[in-house]
Amino acid sequence: MKLGHYGSLLMAAARVEMARIVGAPTLPYKLEYILTFSCGSRCRTCNIWKRYIDDPEKRSEELSVDEIVRSVASAREHVRWVSLTGGEITDRDDLEDIVEGIVDAVGDRLSLLQFTTNGINPDRVEEAFSRILPMTAGIPTYVTMSLDGIGSTYERVRGVPNGYDKVQESMRRLEALNAPELTTSFQITLSELNHHEADALFDVASEGRERPIITMATNALQLTGGKADVDVRSAGPEVREALKRAAGRYPLRGLKDLPPKLHLGLVQRFFDRGDAPLPCVAGHASLTIDAYGGVLQCDSRDVPLAHLRANDFDIPAMCRSEGFREALAPLSGCRECFTPCQAYPTIMHNPTRAFVGAARGRLGL
Ligand SMILES: C[S@@+](CC[C@H](N)C(=O)[O-])C[C@H]1O[C@@H](n2cnc3c(N)ncnc32)[C@H](O)[C@@H]1O
Ligand code: SF4
Ligand code: SF4
């Protein structure tokens, strides 16, 4: 990512903060789309994969390409960061069409286009990204692939036979596409299930590529459906210790390492306090759109603030509406969790407090 793209994200963050100061509606610069709840993994920290086993009809209600693109296009003036996640994005046969539509509508406005995949289907990953990456040329494109264990630990956490090898194969094929603006990284979700090999996982995930993104299990409602208690705060001290070691090992080679480095630096304060060390900017800087167009503050919520289909797919008009602002107000500045997808923007909005907090954490103050 070039300096201009960082500048553009910082400007967008400043605009949101200014709006908040003067009490104006906030228009999000980050849009995260949960494109589907379909998923072939069998994770123990996330129950998304069960959704269409329990209710297969529901899949037909997912947003269409046109609906997704209309909503992104409506946000053209303020959107700078689009994140595509799931479920499993590559389970959508029309993933490539979705990306084409987004790039046509707002590609010139984007400082970051992010994809998260479980990587368990190397053929589909290669097929999808060999079509997607030429479309995203010129846009900083970030693909993260989840890696929650090595060998048998991966299989225990994610329930996919030979899953570890499949993910490594997907990463190898993705990187062989050699796209200039592509950054690849593994994403490690630490929990009680894999903390014992956190250090080895960090090594494997760092080999020859961008350092991993390290996150931690929560009881996020979109993921667990309220039916799994995996929150690291109620785990033993081992997860916390593993995160502390990861913070110490994390590289700081440039601006791009700053949010993850500060995030890990602040994680010990998250455990000490029992809630996030900074007030979250989700709902103002970012919105999460579920597979059916429900507009969420973040993936921890299961009650939408609004619905795209009821708002003619017009995100700015929706954000300016009285109903939306009233629904968001009591949730604003929430501190319930401290996971990277919302913590990185939050750190960007609060750099001084983040630096001071991370320094205090390091000194044990
Ligand atoms: C919900 S998945 C969606 C993308 C894709 N299916 C994958 O697994 O990478 C996004 C990220 O959430 C992580 N995750 C899974 N369970 C979680 C939990 N209970 N709390 C926080 N993150 C979790 C996954 O490991 C993954 O890195
Ligand atoms: S974490 Fe990702 S791969 Fe695992 S069940 Fe959830 S959506 Fe699927
Ligand atoms: S802290 Fe942010 S990401 Fe976490 S539950 Fe609250 S609003 Fe959602």
Task: Briefly characterize the structure.
The protein has helices at about 5-20, 50-55, 65-75, 95-105, 120-135, 150-160, 165-175, 200-205, 220-225, 235-250, 260-275, 315-320, 320-330, 340-350, 350-365, and strands at about 30-35, 80-85, 110-115, 140-145, 180-190, 215, 285-290, 295, 305. The protein is an alpha/beta fold.
Q: Could you characterize what this model shows?
A:
With 365 residues, the chain is an alpha/beta fold. It has a single domain, classed as TIM Barrel, CATH 3.20.20.70. 44% of the residues lie in helices and 12% in strands. It has 15 helices and 9 strands. The protein has helices at residues 3-22, 51-54, 65-74, 95-106, 122-135, 152-158, 163-176, 198-206, 221-224, 237-249, 258-273, 315-320, 322-328, 340-349, 351-363; strands at residues 30-34, 81-85, 112-117, 141-146, 182-190, 213-216, 286-289, 294-296, 306-307. It has a 9-stranded mixed beta sheet with strand order 6-5-4-3-2-1-7-8-9, with helices on both faces. A hairpin with a 4-residue loop joins strand 7 (286-289) and strand 8 (294-296). Helix 4 packs parallel to helix 5 (122-135). The longest helix is centred in the N-terminal third of the chain and has 20 residues, at 3-22. The protein is globular. The two termini are 34 Å apart. 49% of the residues are buried. The protein binds S-adenosylmethionine and iron/sulfur cluster (SF4) (2 copies).
